[in-house]
Automatic annotation (TrEMBL):
Pfam families noted in UniProt: Sigma70_r2, Sigma70_r4_2
Gene3D superfamilies: 1.10.1740.10, Winged helix-like DNA-binding domain superfamily/Winged helix DNA-binding domain
BP GO terms, sorted: DNA-templated transcription initiation
Taxonomy, superkingdom: Bacteria
Molecular function in Gene Ontology: DNA binding; sigma factor activity
Coiled coil feature spans: none
SUPFAM superfamilies: Sigma2 domain of RNA polymerase sigma factors, Sigma3 and sigma4 domains of RNA polymerase sigma factors
Keywords assigned: DNA-binding, Sigma factor, Transcription, Transcription regulation
Protein name listed in UniProt: RNA polymerase sigma-70 factor (ECF subfamily)
Annotated ranges, domain RNA polymerase sigma-70 region: 23-90
InterPro entries for the chain: RNA_pol_sigma-70-like, RNA_pol_sigma-70_dom, RNA_pol_sigma70_r2, RNA_pol_sigma70_r4_t2, RNA_pol_sigma_r2, RNA_pol_sigma_r3/r4-like, WH-like_DNA-bd_sf
Length: 187
């Protein structure tokens, strides 16, 4: 946390809307990416981010600094995304725009040009997205936070209200499921 961010948090906690706006501007992109990957729907992700910032504003005085501010916000955002899915009765969803698949494909396929690679990439992307969509929200959320957001196990556990062991298990199950899809393509 920077000194500026600490000042913004203190001022926002005292009711300064301009300071809170600076916090929103600093963190909105990261929260949107997490919510979009969890929900698989841009509109739902936007609603979740809005709800997360609303809840953060209401409870900013409760922020005690034990965790990093970004971790605290991510926990609120993950909970808001999961709540949006519950409200809509949607638990299993595909990821938006194949973002998750792109990272995995880049590490899986050799860089060979041509229509065969394009077709194989599309086939793998569908397989990976399908597997991610079949995962539980917990597995998908833990995987996204770990492998796309680079969060520590402790941060993920806090964001998902789990202990670290349960967090490791969720990530392990997600990786195992994706490995089954990718295994035939690995050298």
């Amino acid at each position: 946390m920077t000194d500026d961010e600490a000042r913004w948090i203190a001022r926002a906690g005292a009711g300064d809307a301009v300071a809170f706006r600076r916090l929103v501007d600093a963190h909105a992109g990261a929260l949107y990416r997490v919510c979009a990957r969890i929900t698989g729907d841009k509109a739902v992700a936007e609603d979740a981010v809005q709800e997360a910032f609303f809840n953060a504003w209401r409870h900013l005085r409760d922020f005690d600094g034990r965790a990093a501010f970004a971790t605290w916000l991510h926990r609120i955002a993950v909970n808001a995304a999961l709540e949006q899915l519950r409200r809509r009765g949607r638990v299993e969803t595909a990821l938006p725009d194949g973002e998750e698949a792109e990272g995995l494909l880049a590490r899986t396929l050799e860089a060979q040009p041509g229509p065969e690679r394009v077709a194989r990439s599309a086939e793998l992307r569908r397989g990976i997205e399908g597997e991610l969509a079949r995962m539980s929200v917990l597995e998908r959320s833990a995987f996204v936070l770990r492998h796309h957001e680079g969060r520590s196990l402790e941060d993920i556990a806090a964001a998902l209200s789990l202990n670290v062991g349960a967090c490791k298990q969720a990530i392990f199950r997600a990786v195992r499921k994706l490995r089954a899809v990718l295994e035939p393509e690995l050298p």
